[in-house]
Design a protein that fits this description.
The structure holds two protein chains of two kinds. Chain A has a single domain, classed as Sandwich (Immunoglobulin-like). Chain A is 0% helix and 53% strand. Chain A contains no helices and eleven strands. Chain A is globular and about 45 Å long. By secondary structure, chain B is an all-beta fold. Helix content of chain B is 0%, strand content 49%. Chain B has no helices and eleven strands. The termini of chain B are far apart. Classes of the chains: A mainly beta, B mainly beta. Chains A and B meet through strand 5 and strand 10 of A and strand 5, strand 9 and strand 10 of B.
């Protein structure tokens, strides 16, 4: 079965610094989703990537999917306290009915 | 557009008691998912509905968990009897026909004592 590994597990950065979170799959990714979660709350959809080499940006967050479609990265530029939370990557299997398998998440803290 | 609604937001029960969670998906979304998220883990799918039919319930502990979506809109997830290891956040998500993006509700935090 497919597994997603996220790194780092947690991250503390100073406000204004850039950071990168990685998500690595044991199998080829056919749909890679990034979500953000505040502690104990629901997931907020950030971006979805499907094609090898694809890159998407929204405000100060950029997500990329590598050419081999087995690794994705999430980059935040000039971090702010509002970026704090848990970032989760989720992936769908080629043969799945759409349900997602998630990594364990990366906890981001931003110090003002 | 209203998002996915869930209730209650928090629930504390003792082991062996029963509990039910409710979910109302985004209007027009045919697919509804229930996930269990244990502290420090990513969400794990429990059951997926397409309209009022079950698509995938392979990871649902059927001896104690049940779910229904009778009219293809709202859904209820029940645990009976609850165990200590059921303490988790239960997330409901909905989407248009898969593999469209899933949108999540705020979750129900269950504590079993």
């Amino acid at each position: 079965s497919q597994e997603l590994e996220q790194s780092p597990q947690s991250l503390i950065v100073q406000e204004g610094k850039n950071l990168t979170i990685n998500c690595t799959s044991s199998k080829t990714l056919y749909g890679l989703y990034w979500y953000k979660q505040k502690y104990g709350e629901g997931l907020i959809f950030l971006m979805m990537l499907q094609k090898g080499g694809e890159e998407k940006s929204h405000e100060k967050i950029t997500a990329k999917l590598d050419e081999k479609k087995q690794q994705s990265s999430l980059h935040i530029t000039a971090s702010q306290p509002s970026h704090a939370g848990i970032y989760l990557c989720g992936a769908s299997d080629r043969g799945s009915q759409g349900n997602l398998i998630f990594g364990k998440g990366t906890k981001l803290s931003v110090k003002p | 557009e209203a998002g996915v609604a869930q209730s209650p937001r928090y629930k504390i029960i003792e082991k062996r008691q029963s509990v039910a969670f409710w979910c109302n998906p985004i209007s027009g979304h045919a697919t509804l998912y229930w996930y269990q998220q244990i502290l420090g883990q990513g969400p794990k799918l429990l059951i997926q509905f397409q309209n009022n039919g079950v698509v995938d319930d392979s990871q649902l502990p059927k001896d104690r968990f049940s779910a229904e979506r009778l009219k293809g809109v709202d859904s209820t997830l029940k645990i009976q009897p609850a165990k200590l290891e059921d303490s988790a956040v239960y997330l409901c998500a909905s989407s248009l026909v898969p593999p469209n993006t899933q949108y999540f509700g705020p979750g129900t935090r269950l504590t079993v004592l």
